[in-house]
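Quick one: structure for this chain?
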Amino acid sequence: MRSYYAAVAHGDAVAAARHFTAPSTFVTRQGAWSPATAAEIETSFAATLRDFKAQGYSHSTWSESHMKLLGETVALASLVIVRHRTDGTEKKAAA
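Got it. Here's what it folds into:
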């Protein structure tokens, strides 16, 4: 989780995407999404990071995390992060 967070915090979509296998399922406030390939995961991370930057985000800090093993090769993970904008404002977000 720490290396995944570091990749996202540093804007490295390729490194962030490497933490997932395809197919994967992501559940967000916008709904569930199941990319079939690693390239789709990487493209999604790149778009998200681009959107953050366009919205004025400068960096994020890790507030808390939760992990539950569901089997030998499956886990449910969640993060709560604080996104910091270049104007000094903050936004708490779950991932």
